[in-house]
Amino acid sequence: MHIGIVGGGQLGRMIILSGLPLGMRFTVLDPSENCPCAHLGAELVVAALDDAEAIERLGRAVDVLTYEIEHINVDALSALEQDGRRVRPSGETLAVVQDKYEQRRLLHEAGLPGPRFAAIDELDDEALRGFGMPAVQKLRRGGYDGRGVALLAGPESPRLRGASLLEERVAVEKELALVTARDASGVCSSFDVCELEFDPQNNICTRVIAPARVEADTAREAERLGEAAAAAVGCVGICATELFLTTEGRLLINELAPRPHNSGHWTIEGAETGQFEQHLRAVSGLPLGSPRRRGAAVMRNILAEPGSNGAAVVRGLTETLAIPGAHVHLYGKAEARSRRKMGHVTVTAEHLDEALRRAEGIALRIEGERDG
Ligand code: ADP
What we know:
- The chain has about 375 residues and is α+β, with helices and mostly antiparallel strands.
- It has helices at about 10-20, 50-60, 75-80, 90-100, 100-110, 125-130, 215-230, 265-270, 275-285, 315-320, 350-360, and strands at about 1-5, 25-30, 45, 65, 115-120, 135-140, 150, 165-170, 170-180, 190, 195-200, 205-210, 235-245, 250-255, 295-305, 310-315, 325-330, 335, 340-350, 365-370.
- About 25% of the residues lie in helices and about 30% in strands.
- Helix 2 packs across helix 3 (about 75-80) and helix 3 packs antiparallel against helix 4 (about 90-100).
- It binds adenosine-5'-diphosphate.
- Adenosine-5'-diphosphate binds near residues 138 and 170.
């Protein structure tokens, strides 16, 4: 089976690493010849992510085309599908998810709970007053890792320019994620719901805890919502649903990603089948594996130290590897730039309190050679 992947970042890298043992062959499209998917035994096509011609050429050369990033040319995906080529998740799924407003609207129409929302062309005082505060403004397109999101506490808060989605600001008790694999016949196989922690300064996910410390009813409801959301957007492959558990105990959908997701990295070692292999199984029509959790897992993202700028230098590897149950994943990024995602560490243990305790010892740090 020959798989094409649009995007050559860490998610593509982990897809390849899980597909090689299955005998799969990979061709990756990425603008950088030094991307994390380079030097992995995959063929690399160097092209822009919006290069329709290059994407179409790739889609015609492989058995299945998938993607690891949402900001790609979606028309090329649809053109390939019209030609009978297999693109999974489909161009239609991606088109909906790429536009945060369209995504919200579709989930709302499917009867799934989310914050109150509205579409805004240019956010002026009157529109904001009409909607009410506190609110959250999100650019409809192009945001990621908290970029393109502004928390509007009052009329003086800095706003974003451009077509936006406006949402009520909900009182969040915990952020959760439900990662599911959905096959072409619509059957879902979900990993246990996990808990996400963010750096409050910049909204980047720092830690993922599996299983989430929530009531059994909440976990079941998260699974129902995540699977319904994946079905609503017609996703074939991994679909990750980020959820808010509100201070009143309600679950609301924040957003979806129709691809392997940071909140599912723990499954590589923490579940019987990891999300990357599960994605490959789903998109290529192979049986889904068991998503059963093995013990507990805590995943920490390794971001380049704030202010980093230069060739990546890894510190603390020896101490980290000395932790029982620690699994280190470095993404092969040559340049450390401030807070760039450079790797992650998952620590597994039989029980969560032990995994949390062990994860405290993660000493891995990445900085730039020329820093300071
Ligand atoms: P991104 O796509 O960049 O990850 P999100 O839509 O997930 O953006 O928003 C980033 C973060 O902002 C969320 O993880 C959450 O902490 C906060 N946030 C987003 N929407 C809301 C909301 N409606 N109410 C409260 N907090 C929110």
